[in-house]
Write a structure and sequence with these properties.
The protein has a domain at 3-47. It has helices at residues 3-27, 29-47. It is mainly α.
């Protein structure tokens, strides 16, 4: 496989990923924001550095997703009224 063919395949893959990201951002903007917030949290837990990649004011937080703390709340409603 020649170098030209490899770069053609790589450029095609990158273009497909970018188009897919744009489509997801238009159709599911909240999912995109939550994925970015989760990435911020992972960077914080791994390095201790805080970033705000999408500018929504939510920087990395070590308390999110921490299931190792005993005695936590049994509330699984996610802040939605009517669920317990």
């Amino acid at each position: 496989m020649g170098v030209k063919k490899i770069f053609t395949v790589l450029i095609t893959i990158v273009a497909c990923v970018l188009i897919g990201a744009l489509v997801l951002n238009v159709l599911l903007p909240n999912v995109t924001a939550q994925v970015i917030n989760a990435a911020e949290d992972m960077v914080y837990r791994a390095t201790g550095l805080t970033f705000d990649f999408n500018g929504d004011g939510n920087v990395g937080d070590s308390s999110k997703g921490d299931t190792s703390t005993p005695g936590g709340s049994d509330d699984v409603s996610g802040g939605v009224e009517g669920f317990k």
